[in-house]
């Protein structure tokens, strides 16, 4: 059979912008420190919207972009660790809100790596011939679990959602390789505290892990696809911290123009981060048919994952 690729993509970020200057008013911090240490200038806050509200908007946009009818979606997967509640899941809510047929829907949690895990999961259902079109959404409202009195974490996070429709594409396009991994030993460095529900993090340890794994996993997945770094047209790392992203980019040997950067305007949006950046580049006409793209993420768990894909689809060939 053919490969599995992206037939449509869409995103949603809430209107409320929270800048570093806003943080200067509530915490002992400065725009200078945040910019230098993280590359973040501002982030979006969902306020009265919940994770499902953002997921639904992103999903609508992705389905529209795919040109498919809603009735052609066979499954919904939502990557999130900030679901409105444990159940019904966000994916159940998306299925209902969009009036999709009574299709399978599930949430999948792998913290900031969630979207990569969910893309690979969706891909497997299509490859197996079980389903044809899978809607994969990354959505997180991290402000729900952010301690706004902790300056070392509060400044990092933002809210958002983005989605893709996966489906069969001809052989030159689509997902060429992937890598997934986890190491629960590092769970103590990044976790949700049981009592407060706040994110707790050992920034130094997470930073060291992220620098090592992001570079290594990107190189691995590129080699697995039979490509070299010269063949990569766009590098889309998890938007956690510009210094981590830069080190991965250098390890890959890719020029700065080829790295997607939205960390400055959205901060770290967890499972939404990678698709949000991909949608941003797509909306700005920075991605064209035939481009080789590497997606790479890391997150709580600890988890990591990467995908190498060739952008494009022959919708007319596969209908
Ligand atoms: O999806 C989650 C993924 N998590 C990440 O990507 C986080 C990875 N880690 C990091 O990005 C970095 O660890 C941070 C940017 C969060 C912090 O940088 P760091 O170099 O690891 O700093 P640190 O935590 O060791 O703190 C250095 C100093 C401390 O002050 P002292 O003890 O040296 O006086 C902190 O209290 O920086 C201080 N500090 C701040 N100062 C001003 C920590 N946060 C702030 C702040 N503003 N917001």
From TrEMBL:
Residues 239-243 are annotated as: ACP-binding. It catalyses: 3-methylbutanoyl-CoA + malonyl-[ACP] + H(+) = 5-methyl-3-oxohexanoyl-[ACP] + CO2 + CoA; 2-methylpropanoyl-CoA + malonyl-[ACP] + H(+) = 4-methyl-3-oxopentanoyl-[ACP] + CO2 + CoA; (2S)-2-methylbutanoyl-CoA + malonyl-[ACP] + H(+) = (4S)-4-methyl-3-oxohexanoyl-[ACP] + CO2 + CoA; malonyl-[ACP] + acetyl-CoA + H(+) = 3-oxobutanoyl-[ACP] + CO2 + CoA. Residues 223-311 form the Beta-ketoacyl-[acyl-carrier-protein] synthase III C-terminal domain. Gene3D superfamilies: 3.40.47.10. The active site is at residues 112, 238, 268. Its main location: cytoplasm. The keyword Transferase applies. Keywords: Acyltransferase, Cytoplasm, Fatty acid biosynthesis, Fatty acid metabolism, Lipid biosynthesis, Lipid metabolism, Multifunctional enzyme, Transferase. It is found in: Cytoplasm. GO terms for biological process: fatty acid biosynthetic process. Its EC number is 2.3.1.180. The keyword Lipid metabolism applies. PANTHER family: 3-OXOACYL-[ACYL-CARRIER-PROTEIN] SYNTHASE, BETA-KETOACYL-[ACYL-CARRIER-PROTEIN] SYNTHASE III, CHLOROPLASTIC. The last Arg residue of the ACP-binding site is essential for the weak association between ACP/AcpP and FabH. Catalyzes the condensation reaction of fatty acid synthesis by the addition to an acyl acceptor of two carbons from malonyl-ACP. Catalyzes the first condensation reaction which initiates fatty acid synthesis and may therefore play a role in governing the total rate of fatty acid production. Possesses both acetoacetyl-ACP synthase and acetyl transacylase activities. Its substrate specificity determines the biosynthesis of branched-chain and/or straight-chain of fatty acids. This is Beta-ketoacyl-[acyl-carrier-protein] synthase III. It comes from Phocicoccus pinnipedialis.
